[in-house]
Design brief:
By secondary structure, the protein is mainly beta. It contains 6 helices and 49 strands. It folds into 2 domains: about 80 residues, Sandwich (Immunoglobulin-like), CATH 2.60.40.1120; about 550 residues, Beta Barrel (Maltoporin, Chain A). The N terminus is likely disordered.
Length: about 750
């Protein structure tokens, strides 16, 4: 913050702090220029002092890797922080937080994508998950606001109802359940500062998660200016969002709180949505640069489900809901929360420890046409990680090791849904059908070594040991079947080796081999009769990858390219056995091969105008290597549920006087609908626009007005599909979730800084 203190009647000292706009991290060695003369340089913590200032004053803040910024000051201004926007050069230099050993992006021998705060603000903020489509290799099957499924490199595309095979963390606290299911739909992006996506197996770091890991980071209140803010947004289909925020930054402590309310009538029948969420984040600095952090998040959701529809309805009546879901007025509702406490301790100058304990709960009620589900889940765990900076054979090295334990108590019961016996009443609960309690645990032990063999060559090696087991108590005795028992999956060793070589200044080649695994979920282990399928095995696979990361054209152009091959064994798929009912099976072998590209260019088109065109693409070659199901051989066929390619391109336009404009183009290739590759969706193209203007309305008050259009050309498309849908009772199979037609949004945000 800028603090202005009187020295005499004619001059004053001006002090402040300079931070990265994308990461909120302090920036050292920034030149502070007045009248073409360097008058100060920021220190290691980003703080600076300009002595003997005479107001009014214009200062320019400049450092390689960030866009220069000029700002005027007068006697009345105080408590202001300077945020610099990263150029493409600095993108490659960003230190990743999601690795065991913090590593610059360009030196990481793996495909990692970073979404900054400005990247997250390209969309209308109603649904955070849509931002992940910006990442090459990631595809989000989008249903309603609460029925999205994420796949990374084709893994997770065949999940039944939600995302699995992917790990996710919120400030280091696990979001995925112990069984591996993940819901990111109810994370509000107003609470996020940064997202890191690691593509491919990450088991050497996080344990189970064959597809990859998504790491979410909230805004650090200790690196933001104290303020109070209100944001309101309205849009098509009576969609509304309101967000309230307060951030307080003290000398040794900080506090951030955010409350959000989103509601919508939905554009399809039985598609209304209502979500309330709140986030608390606090940090206290203790002696010796140690810190204690606290995070709490709570969500209350009720969302109706229109579900998938047939091809005929998709083309002729896309607003309709599936008949059974509409007649039963099917929905899901739940209360979900997480709590976490983390302590960072410096054992010595080169030896540190971070230990976190966390609690996660979810209480849900879901009337579905085929039954009514009531479930309760409580999870608790701890993670500790030691990091040591040292030397091996006089070569700089970093070592990290630790452990994580996670235990989850999962209680579920199903009931008859008697909606067909009561006209126009929706779902009516009948007799109990099942009553089970499943307790699952997993333990990970991990270690990683980074060794700089030469100035240009980095070697990374990691190893994870995992053990997972669960027990089942069957309390429903009317079926005369008792599945009570304890079960353990085979222990898994997951190694990783990677190399990164700087072939030229700021240009790196990398290669890596990594192992990953995913255990079956509760839904996959249970048959429709409520029995446990004890024959299921964990998915395993190796990822082989080579790639390049580098800067060109005086560091204005940043590019990434990666080629990968993942061989998955014992692939777990959902086999449909009745209407809206599935059973998990191991599908033999699959090959996931692909090419991914990312490029971003930054240029100044005028003194106060900055343009950043970007493009990313993924070309996918996913197929069954060996898969025989019900005596039908699908070997060699393409995997359903995943597009053949995704292409994203756009332009970010920003100005020094507050105006901004974004255009985002998406091209999605055709998607196989079934294992036999007999049906495909059509490819489609989308264009989204957003513009905004931020300005000061008076001292310490900032106003931001914005608006946009999604699907500008009103493209008709399938935003998600249900692979291998089967028609029952003469009905056509319901493959399609239609995407939103053209829709509009506008919003206003007011912030008071103090």
């Amino acid at each position: 913050m800028l603090i202005v203190g009187a020295q005499n009647s004619f001059s004053q000292n001006l002090t402040g702090q300079i931070l990265s706009e994308a990461t909120s991290e302090a920036i050292a060695n920034v030149n502070i220029i007045a009248a073409s003369e360097v008058v100060a340089v920021s220190g290691i913590d980003g703080f600076f002092t300009v002595e003997n200032v005479k107001f009014p004053l214009v200062l320019k803040f400049s450092i390689i890797g960030f866009e220069a910024q000029s700002k005027s000051f007068d006697k009345n201004q105080s408590d202001v922080k300077i945020y610099l926007k990263q150029s493409n050069e600095s993108l490659s230099e960003v230190r990743l937080r999601s690795t065991l050993i913090p590593t610059e992006l360009r030196n990481m021998p793996a495909a990692v994508s970073l979404l900054s705060k400005s990247d997250l603000e390209r969309t209308d903020a109603a649904n955070f998950v849509d931002n992940l489509n910006y990442v090459p290799g990631v595809y989000v099957n989008q249903g309603a606001l609460n029925t999205n499924k994420i796949n990374i490199r084709g893994i997770g595309g065949r999940a039944q109802y939600s995302t699995n095979r992917i790990q996710a963390y919120f400030d280091g606290i696990p979001l995925a359940t112990a069984e591996g299911e993940l819901t990111l739909d109810d994370i509000d992006q107003e609470s996020l500062e940064r997202v890191e996506v690691i593509k491919g197996p990450t088991s050497s770091i996080y344990g189970a998660g064959l597809g990859g890991a998504i790491n979410l980071y909230s805004a650090d209140p200790g690196k933001r200016q104290s303020h109070i803010g209100v944001k309101m947004q309205g849009g098509s289909y009576n969609t509304w969002k309101k967000s309230d925020v307060i951030s307080i930054n003290g000398e040794n402590s900080s506090f951030f709180a955010n409350y959000n309310h989103v509601k919508s009538d939905g554009w399809r029948d039985n598609g209304s949505y209502d979500r309330k969420s709140g986030l608390l984040n606090a940090k206290v600095l203790t002696s010796g640069n140690n810190s204690l952090s606290f995070l709490a998040n709570f969500v209350r959701l009720k969302a109706y489900i229109p579900s998938s529809i047939s091809e005929d309805d998709f083309f002729n009546d896309p607003e309709s809901a599936a008949y059974t879901w509409g007649a039963s007025r099917g929905y899901e509702s739940y209360d979900r929360g997480l709590l976490g406490i983390s302590y960072n301790h410096h054992l010595s100058e080169n030896f540190t420890n971070q230990t976190s304990i966390f609690l996660n709960f979810r209480n849900a009620y879901e009337p579905r046409p085929f039954d009514i589900l009531k479930e309760e889940r409580l999870s608790a765990g701890a993670r500790t990680n030691f990091s040591l900076a040292t030397a091996i054979f006089e070569k700089p090295a970093a070592i990290s090791f630790g452990a994580q334990y996670y235990n989850e108590w999962y209680e579920t019961g199903t009931f008859e849904n008697l909606y067909e016996d009561f006209d126009d009443l929706g779902s009516v609960r009948g007799e109990r059908l099942s009553n089970n309690e499943q307790d699952r645990y997993y333990a990970n032990f991990f270690a990683q070594l980074n060794l700089n063999l030469t100035e240009n060559l980095l070697v990374e090696a990691g190893l994870n040991f995992n053990t997972t087991g669960y027990s089942l108590d069957d309390f429903y005795t009317e079926d005369n079947i008792d599945q009570t028992g304890s079960y353990t999956f085979d222990a898994v060793f997951s190694p990783r080796v990677g190399l990164s070589y700087e072939v030229a200044e700021r240009k790196n080649l990398y290669a890596s081999v990594s192992h990953g695994f995913s255990t079956p979920t509760v839904a996959e282990t249970l048959t429709p009769e409520g029995q446990i399928n004890t024959d299921l095995k964990a998915e395993t696979g190796f990822n082989y990858e080579i790639g390049f990361k580098g800067n060109w054209l005086n560091n204005r152009l940043y590019t990434e390219v990666s080629l990968y091959s993942i061989q998955v064994r014992n692939l777990l798929v959902a086999q449909r056995v009745a209407e809206d009912q599935y059973v998990g099976i191991n599908a033999g072998k699959t090959d996931h091969n692909g090419i991914e590209f990312f490029g971003k260019y930054t240029l100044d088109i005028a003194e106060n105008w900055h343009m950043s065109p970007f493009v990313n693409a993924a070309f996918n070659f996913f197929k069954f290597d060996r898969f025989v199901n019900e005596e039908v051989d699908y070997s060699g066929n393409e995997l359903p549920g995943v597009p053949k390619h995704t292409i994203n391109a756009g332009i970010d336009l920003n100005t020094n006087f507050g105006f901004s404009f974004n255009i985002w183009y998406r091209n999605i290739g055709e998607i196989p609908l079934n294992d036999g590759n007999l049906l495909y969706t059509n490819s489609y193209q989308l264009v989204n626009l957003k513009a905004g203007y931020a300005f000061d309305i008076m001292k310490d008050f900032q106003l931001n007005i914005y608006g946009g259009i999604n699907n500008v050309f009103d493209e008709h498309y399938a935003a998600s599909v249900l692979p291998n849908a089967v028609g029952f009772g003469g009905a056509a199979p319901r493959f399609y979730y239609p995407g939103y037609p053209r829709n509009y949004f506008t919003g206003i945000a007011v912030n008071y800084f103090f």
